[in-house]
Amino acid sequence: MRYRPISARSTPVLILSFLSLLQPAQLVKHENFKTCSQSGFCKRNRALADRAQAAGASWTAPYELDEKTLQLKDGVLTGKIWKTEAGGIELPLQISLLENGIARVTIDEAQRKAGEITFRHDSKARKERYNEAGKWALVGGHKCQRTATMETKEGVTTVVYGPDNYEARITHKPFSVQFLRKGEVYVVLNDRNLMNVEHWRPKIEKPEGEEPTEDEETYWEETFGGNTDSKPRGPESVALDITFPGYDHVYGIPEHATSLSLKETRGGEGHYSEPYRLYNADVFEYETDSPMTLYGSIPFMQAQKKGSAVGVFWLSAAETWVDVVKTKQSPHVLTTEKASTQTHWISESGLLDVFVLPGPDAIWVYRQYGELTGFTALPAMFSIAYHQCRWNYVSQDDVEDVDRKFDKFDIPYDVIWLDIEHTDGKKYFTWDPLTFKKPESMQKTLAKRDRKLVAIVDPHIKNDGDYTVGKEMVDKGFGVKDKGGDKVYEGWCWPGSSHWVDCFNPAAVDWWKTLFKFDKYIGSTPNLWIWNDMNEPSVFNGPETTMPKDNIHHGNWEHRDVHNINGMSFHNATYEGLKVRLGNGKERRPFVLTRSFFAGSQRSAAMWTGDNQADWAHLQQAFPMLLANGIAGFPFAGADVGGFFGNPSKELLTRWYQAGAFYPFFRGHAHIDAKRREPYLAGEPYVSIIRDAIRLRYSLLPAWYTAFQRASWQGMPILRPHFVAFPDDEAGFAIDDQFFLGDTGLLAKPVVKESATETTIYFPDDEVYYDYFDFSAYHRKGHHEVPATLEKIPLFMRGGYIIPRKDRPRRSSGLMKYDPYTLVISVSSEGSAGGVLYVDDGETYAHESGAYIHRAFTFNHGDNALRSANLHPEPEKAAAYNKVMRSVRVERIIVVGVGKEWATRREVEVKQGSKSWKAKIVYTEGRGGRANTAMVRDPKVSIAKDWSISFA
Ligand code: NOJ
């Protein structure tokens, strides 16, 4: 049992909290999770890599492409690869050359005659390699390049395709593929000949007295931590090495508590000795700086070198391990003096299915990845504001008290959360009859200030004949089955004995969706949104705290095949349920938080990094993790502010709020044993500093929302690492404790170290950087010591941007909907600036029919004018919305970095439509290294219209 599922009302809480003060922070129980050498297929594939390394040039892989079978039709190359062992195994190959320049390489295993293989016949497991991961992860972007051409010469087939005449050079014997862009190789598949498709085989009984080899020991059965996996199909892993020649940084493959630039994994100083593992699991008290698996998996990796980026997406839902090594050698490609990154991908089952994304830069890679797996959903505005959670708010009175206190202390918040204790005996969709007697009236109270409620709904369903949801699920056959395939699987989680809903079954999803209807989820209102936790799934008595791999899902797929998609299948179903509950045409954008995720989760959920600890190491760890999620297409991500386990010091809590104000998903949360720590409890000066941090988030909501819009249209990360903003500046490639916010030019480095009064920030160019709060100006590229006392968030505006804000403090974001804007112009060294603003109603889907405002602001030194211009391609579709918004105005313009000549200006000339008028301007001289500023008061221009302001 992982957690202590004691009730919030029990007394041991105090004792435990006291004990925790005496004990050092606890550490993950390594013995509960496999290392590579404890996982049969990982061990075998790593051993193969070792043999290859030892053999050097004489090593070759037994995979040969049969030239005669090659065919290119409508942008798809097909052929047969022969595995030249075991009498020859046929592996159908397909290389799809997509219009957007992506290449997809898929290798399957041909069906064979009975007798040639042994599948365990007492199992219902489907006897096919899992080929449905694409159904879950992909949305499109795979139209083929019909004009691709092919030429074969001396055992090498070259295919030319894509918008820029990309090339794939396929060597037949042994099989390998080089991808080239403008004559330069950027990715090589099977560069080191580590490719391995463990074919299905007969189980050969050893003669008496003969022991199985070490490899064979785990072919047909594997035991770990007292659990035995029956492996009905025997060994079936797929592995491939992928080299990025000349690319010395790789990023991505979340979720790991590691640095953004991935460390090497085959030992040596400062490196890991284990591969990065992707096997969604509830890792209790996870540690920082580790390649261990966590709750979610996105098998997408980006490689970066100066001025160039490429990506690979390894589409497997099975347990996967990835080794990363940097080297100056490559068997096939002559590299520059720069290191190349060699990776080795190992999955337990399924197809070998890999996408190669050509870039040529990070922005294109993200777009290509988004075209494949979908862009992040544009969230409702409230969901990017501040969320207040703890395990648990124990009663309706408690909730209403917290709600009042936030107001009393003038701290804005949008959402309060209910954890598992709010239910009637951990039966989801119910309320504790004693403590939450009138859930609707509680939601009404919250709605008065436009606030929302989030309630938890987990995938384990209490095994209790009187619980309608559980009974229906079992009766209808919608539960995951155990390895026999007939009986519903039973395991242990919060409610005790439980079953798990099988969202791989479309009929189960249809049923699950109905549970969110207001007449089914009694006590819910349109103001209630959902938190899906424990969906790895977490099973307290299961192997590695999850489900047995030989469990059976819909379609007779083994759990092994689909494991990493399980969480996503569940939160997708919840999202669908929430979307339709109001009826056709009345949909609101659902908010669902998920702990487990896969490629594609971004289309329907937000994620958080699970159970972190209230210590400085976990505060530091959060940004690299959120940055990794952002570049892997899932930017709506956060970490528990304050740390889940333990009690943060007031300093740590305060710093965590300052950092959290820069998490795309911003939620305070705490374990049931942790002391209450709502921000107003911290005492002064902490409360004021935390209030300022939360208010900063609220005032920048227009900028955050605009960044989310760009993510949802083009896949751009919301928190942008240096290598995205400055792809030629190698000095920034490993930085993961500072980042840019969207297209605002805001560079943040929230303090994540104890007792700081200063911090070193890196400015990547010679442009001017202004301190966001006091306008101190920095003019030189490089490292700078900047103030970082407790009340200070190191936050800078790069010269050349216009940042939209809303500065009136309100109780929730909903109450700010029609508030006026402030525009902050950070003038560049050359005297110009530009910015973007996206606005819509923040809750419905009307924006999809064009009901939004999209404006470009430009400030030009030449004519000293600020302009607002329309970016909406079909403005007529926004006419009605513009009408609603036309009286929303800009109430203040702050120009930072103006020359002394502005001192004499008293008025500016405003033009909007055919009218013009004057507005006041006030100049302030900056002293002590601070920039001069000028402020225009109430220019009365509309946010929905074209206008100009002349400062001349
Ligand atoms: C585990 C989650 O990670 C945590 O956030 C939550 O409070 C507990 N489950 C209880 O639901």
- Average pLDDT rating: 95
List low-pLDDT spans. Answer: 1-24
Estimated radius of gyration:
29 Å
- The CATH architecture of the domain at 33-253 and 298-373: Sandwich
Ions, cofactors and other ligands present here are:
1-deoxynojirimycin
Q: What's the CATH class label of the domain at 33-253 and 298-373?
A: Mainly Beta
- Would you report the number of β strands? 49
Short summary of the structure?
The protein has 952 residues and is an alpha+beta fold. Among the domains are: 33-253 and 298-373, glycosyl hydrolase (family 31) (Immunoglobulin-like, Sandwich); 722-950, Golgi alpha-mannosidase II (Immunoglobulin-like, Sandwich), CATH 2.60.40.1180.
Architecture blueprint of SSEs:
Blueprint: H1 12-22, H2 40-55, E1 63-73, E2 76-83, E3 89-97, E4 103-107, H3 133-137, E5 149-153, E6 156-161, E7 166-171, E8 176-181, E9 184-189, E10 196-197, E11 222-224, E12 227-229, E13 238-244, E14 249-252, E15 276-278, E16 300-305, E17 308-314, E18 320-327, E19 340-347, E20 352-357, H4 362-373, E21 386-388, H5 396-408, E22 415-418, H6 439-447, E23 452-456, E24 460-462, H7 468-475, E25 491-493, E26 496-500, H8 506-514, E27 528-532, H9 559-562, H10 566-580, E28 592-594, E29 606-608, H11 616-631, E30 637-638, H12 650-660, E31 666-668, H13 686-699, H14 701-714, E32 719-720, H15 722-725, E33 739-741, E34 746-748, E35 758-763, E36 769-771, E37 777-778, E38 782-787, E39 795-798, E40 801-805, E41 821-826, E42 833-840, E43 852-860, E44 865-870, H16 879-885, E45 889-896, E46 907-912, E47 915-924, E48 933-942, E49 947-950
Parallel strand pairs: 21-22, 21-31, 22-23, 23-27, 27-28, 28-29, 29-30, 41-45
Antiparallel strand pairs: 1-2, 2-3, 3-4, 4-20, 5-6, 6-7, 7-8, 8-9, 9-13, 10-13, 11-12, 13-19, 14-16, 15-18, 16-17, 17-20, 18-19, 24-26, 25-26, 32-33, 33-34, 34-39, 35-38, 36-37, 36-39, 40-41, 42-43, 43-44, 44-49, 45-48, 46-47, 46-49, 47-48
Helix pairs in contact: 5-6, 8-10, 12-13
This protein binds 1-deoxynojirimycin.
1-deoxynojirimycin binds at residues 391, 419-420, 456, 533, 595, 610-611, 644, 669.
